[in-house]
Amino acid sequence: MGIVVLTMKAAVIEMFLVLLVTGIHSNKEMAKKIKRPKFTVPQINCDVKAGKIINPEFIVKCPAGCQDPKYHVYGTNVYASSSSVCAAAVHSGVLDNSGGKVLVQKVAGQSGYRESYSNGVQSLSLPRWRESFVVSEGKPQKGVTYPSALTYSSAKSPAAKADETTKAYQKPSVPGTTAQPVTLMQVPGTTSAEGTHTTLPKPSPSAGSATSSPRPQPVGHRSRELGDTDMWKPGSVLLDAGFVPNEETSTQPLDPASQGDPNCKVDLAFLIDGSASIGSRRFRIQKQFLADVVQALDIGLAGPLVGVVQYGDNPATQFNLKTHMSSRDLKAAIEKITQRGGLSNVGRAISFVTKNFFSKANGNRGGAPNVAVVLVDGWPTDKVEEASRLARESGINVFFITMEGAVEHEKPYVMEPNFASKAVCRTNGFYSISVPSWFSLHKSVQPLVKRVCDTDRLACSKTCFNSADVGFVIDGSSSVGTGNFRTVLQFVANLSREFEISDTDTRIGAVQYTYEQRLEFGFDTYSTKPDILNAIKRVGYWSGGTSTGAAINYALEQLFKESKPNKRKLMILITDGKSYDDIRIPAMAAHHKGVITYAVGIAWAAQDELDVIATHPAKDHAFFVDEFDNLYKLVPKVIQNICTEFNSRPRN
Ligand SMILES: *[C@@H]1O[C@H](CO)[C@@H](O)[C@H](O)[C@H]1NC(C)=O
């Protein structure tokens, strides 16, 4: 017994000793492990944007004081790489204003970034950016080596690398396609077209019979009076009837090593119409047109790059921007494009291009303007205006070329009248070309090339004048008085006059308030400048108390709720006195909802209230004049600040 106990004791002690020794040993090991990769955390300044740093994952040390509106942040949780790393870390709550370490991980570009106010930082929205990042606590993660020194991007042109990846894109990718494309290069007499007949969706013309009246089914897309049957009849003589304009422009020899025309550095997407109703003959004219444009453009890395998307029911990328990087290659590839068939869903195609086409992976260079040229036969079978606006708002310059648009008796079938002029920037005709007949399409080659290369004029897309929903919130309290109220309305009219107004550009709405509130007119009510100015003139003075807080809430509910997504929302609140109710919470709600709020105070208005109402920083968004007669002086200041704020947001 005694011996047994003793041996057991000894065993326990021995075990204890072993544990103790190994414990010490492993502690030492750990100590060594921590010491070994002596990783020094690199330091950056508040203004360093994530996009400047090439490393995909890194830890940096931020200084104190990055919680300053001059360091811009775009997005919420996921930030566009155009954001300040350190300010984004403050916004997300990883750091406070005293600085510290932050772990940064790059992620893919997003199609939109949401603005929000958090931890004292107002982040901004951004439609689309090529790269994003997320931030987290600056602790090294297991198994990851972090750089002690960061690699900064210096060269402006990321294009040099594009060459190696060209091969991977040789095959036109056709995402989401199910329908077999129609074989276009059919030789008269072959039977291949018979096979395609069944795969083509509506509208399917009954073989051989050319209808002569517009067909309202399925979506009012036109059938052809002549020649819409040629694709169904392989032996059709129309194929070789000499309709293809003989535009041989290949007189100047193409340098195979051409770097492209440096005076026309644009990233261009052609959206071509592959719908069934176009017919194979017109499809061929369209390809010829494309080839002529490509020939005239002198494509290359230092010049224009061109990709092609063909649409029918659904769009598909034929080539992206880096698939073919010379005019010669691209021309040869265009020759081989086959028609998809289906409807003419132009809006869907434009949305597709906005979301997918101009990505870095597709060869988008960032420094070159994005241009989309949309070719439409007749009219689209879906809606295009909204899709085009979103495209323009994400920085794409949209051109429309409409061939044989609706004639008078066909107009009822067009879903959106004047779609071509409404879908593009302004209506001065620069962005739209209407071609009366397919046979005269070749005459548009030079005008189009000239326009898409006019990079100074490609300022289209968004400007501070054409991209917002502007809601006026007007104090109609008794202290204002009838005469001064007229002055306020003049002020509202003078500001409105500065914008480009239409249902696709800037829209104006107005609310008047006292104790109560009323909607004078919403964003949808009027769509021309004269109508807006008239409506402002007609606003009747209400007279009553001053519940500014309730008015802000009302404007958010009744006015800005109707604002389109992705539109900039501007609230311009004009008051002459102190509010009877709380403004803090309503103002915060406005800021959280991304409504950029300007506060204009007159006479008895309180500066501290104006500062609370106004979007941060208040000095750029709050204004004060001591009397109504001086209100006019604020017009240029308010406009200037709206544009400065707008221009401080980066665009692709
Ligand atoms: C509005 O513009 C008109 C014409 O330029 C000017 O006479 C008037 O003083 C302006 N009023 C205000 C309040 O801006």
Automatic annotation (TrEMBL):
Annotated protein name in UniProt: Vitrin
Signal sequence interval, chain numbering: 1-26
In this chain, the stretch annotated as Disordered covers 157-231
User: Source species, please?
Assistant: Myotis lucifugus (Little brown bat)
The gene name on file is VIT
Q: Which SMART domains match?
A: LCCL (SM00603), VWA (SM00327)
List the keywords (alphabetical).
Disulfide bond, Extracellular matrix, Glycoprotein, Neurogenesis, Repeat, Secreted, Signal
Q: Where is the LCCL domain?
A: 40-133
Comp. bias intervals (Low complexity): 205-214
Oligomer and partners: Binds dermatan sulfate and chondroitin sulfate.
